[in-house]
What does this fold into?
Amino acid sequence: MSGFRQFLMQGNLVQLAVAVVIGAVFSNLITAFTEGFITPLIGIFGGVPTFGELYFEVNDSRFLYGQFVDALISFLLTAAIVYFFIVLPMTKVLERFAKVEEAVNRPCPQCLSEINKAATRCAFCTSEVAPEAA
It folds into this structure.
């Protein structure tokens, strides 16, 4: 039982659970925003107050394509918000803090094999080379 309790109390599992709950609430928020503001705004120009009520029938089967349009708009808004407010800023922060690895090797001027920058003689062709300034 202690192993199961330890598994439940791990930081990653708790963080994942919090992320799922926040993601679900965020999704509901975006859906409500889409249905409450965006769809009526688009409806002003299209003459349709809500997309959720749009459908077509084939042999008495009703296809609710309006709900799909609402869900598509919600998805696109959610994806755009996540990208522009989370992914893009985090990428820029990670790029800023990433260390630029300095090359430690250079080509030998005689045989073009890779040698250390501080080398005074090539290990492959044994020609003397000037060490590169640091």
